[in-house]
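Lecture 7 notes: from sequence to structure.

We start with a single chain of 163 residues. Read the sequence below before looking at the structure.
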Amino acid sequence: MDSLKGNVWLLGDDIDTDIIIPTEYLALKTVDDMKPYAFSPLRPELAEKIKEGDILVAGKNFGCGSSREQAPEIIKALGIKCVIAKSFARIFFRNSINNGLLLIEQDSLCDQVEEGDEITVAIGDYISHKGKTYPIVPLPDNLLEIINAGGLVNAMRRRNGLV
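Now the structure, written as tokens:
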């Protein structure tokens, strides 16, 4: 994966895991059963509007709250290819990588985009929006390997010749 392009869904600061997937829906059997309720406390209509390839852009502290792995799994199941935020909660960041969801920290894009805008992410290099580029810090190769494999389990299977 060298680059991706998608439409923006804009969220604010401190989007916690209870907003991403409320506790009462964790009892549902599968992630696909849960995903219609993603972001429902904040924006009940959002999950049904997200399209494959869309990109979430948020403020600071995205994914704060709990360590529930369902949060990044549901974002990925919705078809979101990337989450760009000013900052991420540490455990959410690692859970996302382990589940194959690309996260990018970029501190100024969120203040420049509007919902529905199209952005292009040159992975490990920059984000392009309306002719302007926003630099990003590349992820280490070992984390990109996990993301490109679709998650940690798949990456280890590949590394050990099991796929």
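The domain at 3-137 is CATH 3.20.19.10 (Aconitase; domain 4). Keep this in mind for problem set 3.
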